[in-house]
Design brief:
Shape: globular
Helix content: 40-55%
Pfam families: 3HCDH, 3HCDH_N, ECH_2
Catalytic activity: a (3S)-3-hydroxyacyl-CoA + NAD(+) = a 3-oxoacyl-CoA + NADH + H(+)
CATH architecture of the largest domain: Orthogonal Bundle
Distance between the termini: 60 Å
Strand order of the largest sheet: 3-2-1-4-5-6-7-8
Radius of gyration: 29 Å
Organism: Granulicella aggregans
Number of domains: 4
Number of helices: 32
Enzyme class: oxidoreductase
Number of strands: 25
CATH class of the largest domain: Mainly Alpha
Protein name: 3-hydroxyacyl-CoA dehydrogenase
Length: 821
Amino acid sequence: MTGLGRQIRKVAVLGAGTMGSRIAAHVANAGVPVVLLDIVPPGTAADAGIAEKNKFVLTAMEGLKKSKPAAFYTPEAARLIQTGNFEDDLALIKDCDWIIEVVAENLEIKKALLAKVEEHRRPGSILTSNTSGIPIASIAATLSDEVRPHFLGTHFFNPPRYMRLLEIIATTETDVADVAAISHFCDTRLGKTVVRSNDTPNFIANRIGTFSMGNAIRLMMEQGLTIEEVDTLTGAALGWPKTGTFRLGDLVGVDVLAHVATNFSAKAASIEDERQDVGLASFIGEMLGKKWLGDKAGQGFYKKQGKDEQGRDIRLVLDWKTLEYGPSVRPKFQAIEMAKNVESTPKRIAQLLHGDASKDKAAAFYWPLLTELFTYAANRVPPVANSIADSIVEIDAAMKTGFNWELGPFEMFDAAGVAATTEKMRAAGLPVSANVERLLAARGVDPKWYVDDPATASGRLYFDPASGEYKAVPVAEGVTSFGVIKKAHGVVKKNPGASVVDLGDGIAGIELHSKMNALGGDIVSLITQTLKPGSTTVNDFEAFVISGDSANFSVGANLMQLLLGVQEEEWDEVELMVKGFQNMTQAIKFCPRPVVVAPYGMCLGGGVEISIHAAARQAHAELYMGLVETGVGLIPGGGGCKELTIRSIEAGQSIRPDGRAEGVEIFEALKKSFETVAMAKVSTSAAEARGLGYLQKTDAVTMNRDRLLTDAKAKARALVDAGYSAPVMRGDIAAPGENALATLKLAVWTMREGGFISEHDAKVANWAAWILCGGKVTPGTLVSEQYLLDLEREAFLSLCGEKKTQERIAFTLKTGKPLRN
C-alpha cells in the first residue's frame, strides 16, 4: 500500500506540552490546519472564561512563538493552529483525519482521554499515540473494535521540526493502509525519515541510545575519566554530535534522560542479554535531587558562568566524584589529535578502535564502548526473539536521524572491519553475537553488513541474518542522491570541487563536493565551462540541477584563497577571481538550458548568488540562506546586489496594476534589499528566505531532504516541457539613482552616530547602497546588468584593500565567527 489514497487534510494534537505543541507547530509548518487541545487547569471554575479554561494551551502557543530554536518556519504559520480544551472542544476532532495523543506517560490518563476521543472521532480517522515508553499493544487493548484497526504508535523526537526520525509502531490489528497513509504524509509533508519499529521497550533509537550513553557513563566511572574527556571521546571523532554525551544530556534535560533510563531499567530484567549495569548512575540521581537538570535549570553536567570577551559562553564542568564544579578545560588525546587528519569518518573509526588499549587511554575507552555497542545492536534483529526492528537498516536509520550519528552501529561495524574486530574480540574472550557468526559464515573472507549494488534504487544491499542472504536496502519512491546515481551511471566529468552527473530523462546534475562546498576555482571553472553557450555538455542535456549530498549547499567563496591573494597584493589575480565568479553566475542565468538550483542547509554568500541566478529554485525547508559578505567586511561580488536591485525594481513596479511605480514604491522594496545585504540577514527556513527576497513566490520547497534531488529534477524537466526560453542580458534597468542613495546613506550615518555600527560597518554599507542604487546617477537612468556587475567588482576590490576587512576575514577563518572592528 502506498498510502496515497488516504488524505491527511487536518490534524488534531491532544496534549499541548513541550512535545505536543511542537508537533502541532511542525504540522502547521507543512501548511496543514491543526487542532491543539489540552486539559482545563485543575481548580478552574465551571463558568470560567475561555482564556482561563484554555490557559495551558494558550501558554504553550506563546512558548512556541518565542522558542529557540524556532518551532515555526515563520510566525504566520501559527494561524493554522486552532486551540481549545478537552472539556469543551473535543468535538473539533470529528473533522480531523489524524488524531495524535501526546499526554502524560501514564496508561490510565491515556485510557481516560482515548475513551472520550472515541465519542467524537469520525469513523475511519487515524488515531496514534506518541508514547515513548508504554507498549502500543497495551494502549490498543483499551480501544473499541472499530478503533483498533486505525490505531498505531507514532514516536516523534524532540524538537519535531529538527529531528528527522519518526518511529512508527503498528499492532497486529493495525490496517496496513493506515500505516502507509501516515508514513507517506510524514515523509513527504513533515520531512521525516520513517522507520518501522517493533513494539518493544524504548523502541529503536532510545533503546540503542540509552545503552550507548549508559555504557559511556559506566566506562567513565570504571576508568576514572572526566565528563569533559568522555564528551571529547563521544563527539565528532566518531561522527556523533560534537556535544558528546553529557553536553547533549544538558540540552535534552537530565530529567528526561533519567526518565528514559529508569523507564527502561524497570523492564530490562525480563529481557535476555540486557545489561543491568548501564542504568542510572548514582551521581545523576543526586543531580536530580538538587534540580541540576541541564540548560533549562542553568546547570547540569555543565554550568554557565557568563560570557567571554568574544561573547561565547563560559562553562564550568561537574566533577562527578565530588559533585563540585570546576573550570572547563578541553582535554587532548593523542589518538584524537591524530584522527583529526583523517577526514573520512569510517577510516577514522577504524583507526581509533584498533589503537593500543594498553598504552592509549582513548583506545582503552573506545574498545569496550564500540564492541559492546556492535554486539548489543546485532543481538536486536531477527532471528533473535523480541527484536526491536525487522532488519539492521531500521536500526542504522534510527540512530542517524534520531541521534544524529553520521553512521549507524552496523555501518560503524563495517568501518571498523567486521573480521578484524571479531577476531580481536574472540582473542580477548568477549562474546560474539550469533548474528555476527551468521554474517561471517555467509560472507567468508570479506564480511560486511552492507555491500554496494548499483542495480538497486538505494545502491546498497544489507545482510539479513534471519535468511542468511543479502537484500536490497528499501527506499521510498522519489528518494535518491548523487551518490546512488553515480554508483549506477558514473560521472560525465569532474574535478576536485564538483562533478557533472547524468540524472536521466535528459537532465544533468552538477554536484558540489568540496570541503563545506567552499566555492573555489575548481567549482567556478566546472560550472562555467559546463553551462556556457556552445559547450558540449550544454548540447548533450536539456536542463541542469545544481545541488549536492553534503550537509550544506555552500558556505560561500573560498575565503582562504581570497585572503592569500590579498595579502600577497596580487590584485590582478584577485580581480580575475571576482570576474570569474561573475562569469559563472552569468553562465547560470543565461544558459540556453534551464538551470534549477536546489539549496539546503547553509547556503551563504556565493551559494546564494549561485541560487538567485538560476531559472528556478527547489529549496529544502530547512534552509539557512543569506548574503553574509558584510560580516567579513565585503559586499556580494558575484551578482548578488545586481539581482536584488532588479528584483527590488520589479517588486516596486508590481505594486501598481499599470506597472508605473512611483519612486517611493520602488524605494521601499530597495530599502528591504539594502537591509538584507547590509545586515547580512540569514533565513532560518525556506519560508523565511522567501520573505528576505532570496527565494521567489514561484520557487518550490521540499520538506524531506532525501527527496530534494528528485524534486529539483522534476522541476527542471517541467521547465523544458513548458518550452523554456533563456533570458537575455538587460540594458534597460531604471537605476534608483542619487535620491535613493542619499536616503540610504543618511540611514547609515544615523546608525553610525547612534553607535549601532562601526565606522567600517558604515563604509561597507555605503558601498552596498552605491551598487543597489546604480551609483550617483539621475533616478531612472537606464543601466545594464554588466554596469551593475562592474560596480560590484569595484566595491569588492576596494574593500579587499581595507585592513579592517582583512582582519575580519582572518578572524572568521580562525574562529568561524564574525569580527566587529
